[in-house]
């Protein structure tokens, strides 16, 4: 087990406590400051690996992206996060957001359990939940991942607007260009981004890349 702790004082306590256990390595670092491969190296282990964590709620999304988009992705992630974040991670088309797409493009997600505030001492002011992400060997879309995320980020730039307007504004192109891309992707021009599936986003990306080549 490789445990990552940013608090220097706590690192010293943990290293002393787990000194009799050679299978436990304590890495004193900011988890977001080191690549997954460097964290594994410092812990003296190699892939494949699993991430298990009670994530600080203010950096939960950033930590998920750090590992899912990292140089060595985990086989699985089981994490406790704020309930609203958990709901976003496992959301189906109709309620999806940027975090939903950014997580599900890398693996299958599911809710494991909800955790009431009374399970903590002291009880937090928010609800919590545990989610599981079974990470795929490669992204679950057959398009360039950089272009995919460019389209997705543009689409969710104004989530309350119709997708054609958000894409036009976010990609800095005329609506006529976006209308052509959406027709080629067979995606309804009047939809809002939260209703699209991964396949829809992939189709839009494919049509956008093809349009850029013409």
Key descriptive features of the protein:
Rossmann fold; 214 residues; 6 strands; Helicase, Ruva Protein, domain 3; two-stranded parallel ribbon; 17% strand; elongated; alpha/beta; 3 domains; four-stranded mixed beta sheet; 9 helices
Question: How would you briefly describe this protein structure?
Answer:
The protein is of the alpha/beta class and 214 residues long. It has helices at residues 8-17, 36-43, 60-68, 83-89, 98-104, 145-155, 163-171, 175-185, 198-213; strands at 2-5, 25-28, 50-54, 76-82, 107-115, 128-135. The protein folds into 3 domains: 1-44, no CATH class; 47-140, Vaccinia Virus protein VP39 (Rossmann fold, 3-Layer(aba) Sandwich), CATH 3.40.50.150; 145-213, Orthogonal Bundle (Helicase, Ruva Protein, domain 3), CATH 1.10.8.100.
Say which CATH homologous superfamily of the largest domain is assigned. Vaccinia Virus protein VP39
Low-pLDDT residue spans: none
Neighbour order of strands in the largest sheet:
3-4-6-5
Order of helices and strands: EHEHEHEHHEEHHHH
Report helical residue fraction: 40-55%
- Which second-level CATH architecture of the largest domain applies? 3-Layer(aba) Sandwich
* Structural domain count: 3
CATH class term of the largest domain: Alpha Beta
Please give the largest β-sheet: 4 strands, mixed
Number of helices: 9
Shape: elongated
Class based on secondary structure composition and strand pairing? alpha/beta
Number of strands: 6
Averaged pLDDT: 94
**CATH topology of the largest domain, which one?**
Rossmann fold
Radius of gyration, Cα only, in angstroms? Answer: 20 Å
Separation of the first and last Cα atoms = 51 Å
Beta strand % = 15-25%
């Amino acid at each position: 087990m490789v445990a990552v702790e940013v608090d220097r004082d706590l690192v010293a306590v943990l290293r002393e406590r787990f000194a009799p256990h050679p299978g436990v390595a304590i890495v004193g670092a900011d988890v977001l400051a080191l690549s997954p491969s460097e964290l594994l190296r410092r812990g003296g282990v190699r892939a494949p690996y699993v991430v298990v964590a009670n994530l600080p709620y203010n950096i939960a999304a950033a930590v998920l992206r750090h590992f899912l988009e990292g140089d060595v992705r985990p086989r699985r992630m089981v994490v406790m996060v704020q309930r609203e974040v958990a709901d976003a991670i496992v959301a189906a088309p109709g309620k999806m957001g940027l975090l939903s797409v950014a997580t599900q493009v890398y693996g299958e997600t599911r809710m494991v359990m909800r955790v009431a505030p009374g399970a903590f001492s002291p009880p937090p002011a928010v609800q919590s939940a545990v989610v599981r992400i079974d990470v795929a060997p490669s992204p679950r879309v057959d398009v360039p991942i950089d272009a995919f995320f460019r389209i997705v980020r543009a689409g969710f730039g104004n989530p309350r607007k119709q997708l054609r307007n958000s894409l036009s504004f976010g990609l800095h192109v005329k609506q006529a260009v976006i209308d052509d891309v959406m027709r080629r992707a067979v995606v309804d021009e009047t939809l809002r981004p939260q209703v699209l599936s991964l396949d829809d986003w992939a189709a839009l990306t494919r049509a956008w890349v093809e349009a850029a080549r013409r």
